[in-house]
Sequence to fold (317 residues):
Amino acid sequence: MSKVAAFSVDKDVQEYDEYTFTLPELYRELAKEELREDDAVRERSLTEMRQWIANNSYIRKCRMDAKFLLRFLRAKKFSVPMACEALERYLMMREMYPGWFKGLDSSVAVMKELYMDGGVSILGQDSLGRTVVFFRIGLFEAEKLVPPQGGKFIALLIESMLEWEEVQIGGLQVMVDYTDMDMKIFEKWSSSELQIIMNAYTLSYPVRYNDTHAAKLPKKAVPIIEQILSFADPKIRERINCYATVAEMQKHFDPMLTPKGYGGEIDLDALNRKMWARIEQQHDVLMGMDDMEIDMDHYTPIWDELLANVPTQVPLH
Fold:
């Protein structure tokens, strides 16, 4: 598979890319019903958002291509003011914590190792158009999932998936199997570091999360997981379903996406190799985004004010 070229971050372009909707009809219907998107709304909203960025002197460099801006417009159901605010929050997050959310390099060996170890698998799209992400927490090696590396790994996956329009429209369904989880995973993480990543994953990245199904969470891990989720968007917490057994959870897999060992036929090792190749295609795109630039003197106090409104928790250790 060939790599996709990086997009320009010059916001003073004279001509924008011409957008064409290429996804299956299911996604056109989802976009219309759930996101208020049609050809006219999309074109008008892109024009308005691009004009806003061009006129915003505090955003110095930014991707202006349709697919990137549609991340935010779709996440905010084509409210242009809310999409612009979401873009600012996203750019602030990347600049405030570059060690976590920049340099998302799929060619770094440990990133591939983390994925091929099988702790997380992108299963594909289900019959409802959702992209299903499956976590097997027991397969993560604690020494690899340390901060900021562990947070950067998940950010790499999120950024890669956001390049796929089916994710922008259909959102994510998350499945989690906590069987044989190593509690050492949390030893290196402070409360503030967990807050950074959860704020990013649920508040700053324009991801549409659907339901989450999780099983076999050890009792001793419950307080830690509850604290992690306390940093998440309340709407996401409301969509989490927990089960005492894996058998109960696996009923919620789409039959076509059910892995071997969970009642289905999907070979996760083979699928992970295929999906990692797709992620590697986005290498230059993700690395090129590091060239986006904002006026930090202007945005730092805004970011500090945003954080002041997020509740803080006592340290884990």
